[in-house]
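Project outcomes to date are best conveyed with an example. Our students and postdoctoral researchers have been running inverse folding experiments weekly, and each run begins with a structure described purely in tokens. The record below, which covers 311 residues, was selected by the lab manager from last quarter's runs and is presented without edits.
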């Protein structure tokens, strides 16, 4: 299995599952002895369906921030170097080629930003429909994978980076014939830090599909949904997501990280302005009708005060 390198995460088809990956299977009809937690990974929840962003949604803006800062630095130094060289030599020669190299590096950084986080989709949602027992996954090219919940082989995926901070995630494999070679693989749900959190996130999704929203939410005092179904993410929502993703064990470290959080939130807001909002096909929306008297309707408008992000 591949890790979670960036927001272009994709799995190759027919990629062989090893024995240890088969041993980490998560069973839809087998409860885990953990408390279900959604870890800020909800866009909508009701008695018909649940919708969650992709696993790297919370990391958006990080690459744009650092590449943007580096590009600005290279560009500024390159311009100053060229200006100084031309002023002294009165002509552009090989003696000031270093300034040109810095300008080229700045251009390359800008290109890497545009390819990674600009002009994409704001997020890649996954929708679980309890009524039809279907999983709908929005793909990077705008198409949608639809597969029965009971036919997906779920397991705990491990990131490529080894050690105590190795990423873990819920991988869903669409099998066709042999369990060794998935036809397609996707990641279910948002980011949960560590194995214990990943298992509690799985239990949240599993209980929702198998037992209903009451069971999934039994240990959730208040539900905060992301405003991604309303359009492009507001700056305030981005700040909330970045704060949650970065975290900090104490106020001192939090104070030091605050400027970085602001910079990432600004970069995130800028990148999202160039991105498209994913839209589910009409045939999928037609199967996701919410009952008029549904007591379990949750979205950004039902968030607690202070977390409605202007909606």
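After processing, the design step wrote out the following sequence:
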């Amino acid at each position: 299995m591949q890790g979670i390198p960036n927001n272009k995460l994709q799995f190759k088809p027919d990629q062989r599952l090893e024995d240890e990956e088969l041993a980490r299977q998560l069973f839809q009809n087998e409860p885990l002895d953990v408390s279900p937690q959604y870890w800020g990974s909800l866009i909508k929840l009701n008695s018909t369906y649940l919708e969650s962003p992709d696993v790297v949604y919370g990391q958006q803006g990080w690459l744009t921030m650092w590449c943007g800062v580096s590009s600005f630095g290279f560009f500024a130094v390159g311009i100053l170097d060229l200006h100084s060289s031309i002023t002294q030599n009165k002509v552009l020669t090989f003696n000031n080629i270093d300034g040109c190299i810095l300008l080229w590096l700045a251009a390359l950084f800008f290109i890497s930003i545009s390819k990674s986080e600009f002009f994409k989709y704001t997020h890649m949602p996954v929708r679980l429909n309890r009524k039809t027992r279907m999983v709908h996954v929005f793909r990077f090219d705008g198409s949608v994978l639809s597969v029965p919940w009971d036919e997906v082989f779920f397991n705990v995926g491990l990131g490529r980076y080894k050690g105590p901070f190795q990423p873990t995630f819920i991988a869903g494999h669409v099998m066709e014939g042999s369990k060794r070679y998935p036809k397609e693989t996707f990641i279910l749900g948002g980011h949960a830090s560590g194995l214990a959190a990943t298992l509690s996130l799985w239990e949240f999704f599993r209980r929702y599909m198998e037992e209903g929203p009451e069971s999934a939410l039994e240990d959730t005092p208040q539900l905060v949904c992301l405003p991604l179904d309303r359009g492009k993410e507001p700056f305030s929502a981005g700040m909330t997501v970045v704060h949650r993703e970065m975290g900090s064990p104490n106020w001192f470290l939090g104070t030091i990280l605050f400027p970085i959080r602001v910079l990432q939130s600004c970069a995130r807001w800028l990148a999202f302005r160039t991105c498209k909002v994913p839209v589910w096909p009409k045939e999928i929306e037609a199967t996701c009708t919410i009952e008029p008297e549904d007591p379990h309707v949750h979205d950004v408008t039902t968030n607690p005060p202070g977390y409605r992000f202007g909606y």
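The first helix runs from residue 19 to 23. The radius of gyration is 22 Å. The training component of this project remains on track.
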